Amino acid sequence: MKLSTAPFPQLSVSCPIVPTEIYTDKGNTHASVSWGRVTSQGIRPVVRTQGNAPESSFSEGQHWITYMVKDTFGQTRTCSFGFNVRVRRCSDWHTYYLPNGVISCTNSNIYGSTCRYSCFSGYTLLGSNSSTCEQTGWTDTKPSCSAISCGQPPHVVNGRVNCGNLGYRAQCHIFCNTSGYILQGSSKVECQDNGQWTSPGVCTDVTPPTFKCTPQMLVNAGPLKQPVQVDWPMPAAPDNSNGVVSVTSDPVSGTVMAVGVHQVTFTSMDSSGNKATCFMSVYVQVVKCSSSQLAERFSEVSCSQENIYGSDCRVNCSDNYYLEGDGHRYCLENGSWSGQQAKCLGLPCQEPPEVANGNFTCEQGYNYGEICTLTCQKGFLAIPPWTITCDINWSPAGHCQDVESPDFPDGCPPDMMLNASRLGELTLVSFQLPYVTDNSGQPLDVTSEPHPGSAFDLGVTNVTVTAQDQSGNIATCTFYVKVAERSCDPPNFDPIRKFLRYNCPNGHQFGATCSLSCPNGTELADTITCDEASTGQLQWTTAGNATPSCPDEVCPPLPHPEHGYLECETAITRKRGPLKKCRVKCNAGYSLFKTAKDFVQCFTNIGRWSGTVSKCIQNKNPDKVEVYFKALYNFPKCTKDEANLKMGLLEKNLFKSKLYEVCPIGVNCPVTLTSFCRVSSGIEGQAESVADLEITLVIDLGAFDETFLGQNLYNELELSTQNAVTIADDDGLFDIPGAGAPGSFTLPRLNFSCSGGRVFTSATHSCAVCGPGYRYKNETLECEVCSVGTYQDALMAFACSKCPAGTTTIKSAATSSDLCIEICTPGSMSTQKTGLAPCSPCDVGTYQNESMAKSCVICPFGMTTLSNGSVSVADCQFFNIRLAKDRPLADVTLPTLTSGSATFMMWVHLPVLNPTMSLTFNLDPSVDQTGSAYFTIGHVKLYLDLEETSLIRTWYHVTLILTQGNATLVVDGEAMNFTADELADETSLGFTASDTIKSVVITGVQLSNSILSLEEITQYSQSCHKRLDDNVLMVSKPDMGENLTPLDPELPLEVGGPMS
């Protein structure tokens, strides 16, 4: 077919013209849009390819419409148009949130929509309640919601209203202003939505008037008990309402009332009808006059109506009395009698009788029937009958008896200290008896025990002065006399050599004589005596003019050592004088035993040698000697088996023959070989295997018993062994196949052996025995020293001997039983500070409960033993400690108290006794203590005073319990609490005297760092010898002459009391 070449027909399409902006109708959000016909060239139809058809509803926004035409040849043409659909709107402010209200719109803010406005309850709308969106905008402005307010709340009479705010639903609470009102009705008001408050309650008065009556009213009756008219005022009745109050009484004022009690009732009522009542008692009483004022004693009275108002009375006197005053009297309305008081006076007696040391006191004079009382002067006691009566004559009278003890106004004589007389002579002590006064003024009997001029023993003696008046009253005071031993210094006539020994059986006291001896026991004919020189000083004198002395040779001659000799020399020393020392030398073939000392020294102070001369023992050869050395080989690989194999080759070598050459002829010399492998550092630190071949040659020396070999054998064996080893090595006798010759050899070493309890001594190369002071020990094959408490005096001993019972040695290695010295037993101490004899008994005031003591223990504070040699603290007894103005301190050491609390106790005695006076104690610093005596215990002051008493006491048990600033004072079991300071860590127990208390005696002073109960303290107060287990007081200066006096069993004690 042939194709046509004619051109294609032309295509075209035309779209209608449509406005670009199209607005929706009122109240709509879509618009209906129409347009004209779309034209095209040709006969082909036009097809819409985009957008809706005409007359369709279009939403808000841009829209496009496209049409297309297509011919038969496939050609297409299109046209398009577009428009924007717009919705008219007002501002959205009118549709948004309305505070406290609600918005309701028909179509939001679209043109034509209407919004309506309403408020919540309690709020009101301000403005239009609706607005419509028109083309020009909203028709009305947006309204607002305003809160409703009710204004001020209603007033409540006699009350108040409290409000938080005044708005809708606000509540205000109602309170009545004062007490006496109660709220009736609602207790609150509330703001309503109409702007009005709800109705309030009412404050109603419910309190009656305040009403107070006079409790009672006293009215006097008429004469002779006649009724009387009684008037009274109305009481006031104030009310809380401040309104008018009416007051009435029942009965009414002005009522006539008889004698007795009547009740009046008062009633008050306020305007609210509240009532109150009160009562008053009216006492109509009878007026009475005092019977005692009508007439005095010894009278007869007759009255018409007893003693009441209006009665008349007449007064008459008894026998032996006469009337003075008015005898006819009336009882008046004021309760008094008319006229003058009537008196019946008795007939007078003479003046009362005189009484020695007293008088009678008569308060009413000396008339008939009067009584007078006997009064005695101070120190005198009234003896019945104590009163006398006037009965024309006086009745029998009593008398005044002296009951006061004499007084020592100047106290006791001061304590005396004097030196003893010469040994063998009595020490006579004279003293002046003290001045004594007595209230009786009569002569006194004054004595002392011991009396002046008596002979006094050494030490401290209490002197008790006793004064007795003619009535038998006794007073005592005590002082002490200390007779001190007067003695020479220890004799020392040989200060350089100190050879002399002094035997002084009576010590070194004045008049004592000492015999003399030398260290070796030689007694000298001369004696020395402690005598008084012309200067008054004591010194030692001799019977002759020559100074006693000992010869230089004070030690006994030494025995000559067997098989040896002595080399002695003497040196002069500054302190010890001649000092002789001898050295033991042994002959050839002999030597000292193993532990022997080769010298002895003369101890000049005891005249003895330092030991015995050691024996020279014949030298003995060792039983055998072992010659020992090593050959060292290097192996590439050294195992035990391989080493043994290779060493075994040595058994076939001939090196042994060389060693045998070392042995003496005819002596058995076995050779033993021992090998082992080890690893050692080789060159440059590399490990290599080494084999040690130990070679021991044993030589039996028994064949040489007759000849001592000594040092020669040692040197010969050492040299010959070295030569034999060198030759054998040079000859290759030590070579081992595969290993070669030894790399090195050790030097030969010789070991000697002894038997039979002997020990090898290298100094002499012999077997020596163990000497005295030692024993041979099989386990170690050595000499062992004998320990302390044992000794050995023989040679070659296998055991040490024990010292006898009760003895021991000062040190080990004792060589004789003579060195076993007595042990110091309990109650004694070693004077040489060794624990051994010589022993000295513990002095008075000390004790020792252990054996071998080097010192004695001092008794606790205020305590002493009664004799020498005390063995326990239980032997310590309490001392009496006298404190006075001239001796105010007792030396006491107070240790630090661990608990911060303490219990301090002591016994207190007043030396000058007065049966009518007793001691009182207190700690109260607030009380004026001026002029009081007091103890100072640390920082605490304990005050003492005197008071009169009928209980005779001489000893007082005083306890202080101190804890955290508080103090409890317990005196004889009675406790008192005070505030007090702590005890000081270091202090003294002090005493300050007063005019009335010039001295005191104390004993049983103890201190515990724990708190004792009252029950425990009571137990201690019942015995003067009961001691605290944890007493911490100690004497810092136990000088009995200064502060302590011996416990005086004759010192007056309380009868039946705790002291014994």
UniProtKB/TrEMBL annotation:
The keyword Disulfide bond applies. This is HYR domain-containing protein. InterPro entries: ConA-like_dom_sf (IPR013320), Growth_fac_rcpt_cys_sf (IPR009030), HYR_dom (IPR003410), SRPX-like (IPR043555), Sushi/SCR/CCP_sf (IPR035976), Sushi_SCR_CCP_dom (IPR000436), Tyr-kin_ephrin_A/B_rcpt-like (IPR011641). PANTHER family: HYR DOMAIN-CONTAINING PROTEIN, SUSHI_VON WILLEBRAND FACTOR TYPE A_EGF_PENTRAXIN DOMAIN-CONTAINING 1. Disulfide bonds join 90-133, 176-203, 317-344. PROSITE patterns: HYR, PROKAR_LIPOPROTEIN, SUSHI. Residues 88-147, 148-205, 287-346, 486-552, 553-618 form the Sushi domain. Residues 5-87, 204-286, 403-485 form the HYR domain. Keywords: Disulfide bond, Repeat, Sushi. Residues 1039-1060 are annotated as: Disordered. It comes from Biomphalaria glabrata (Bloodfluke planorb).
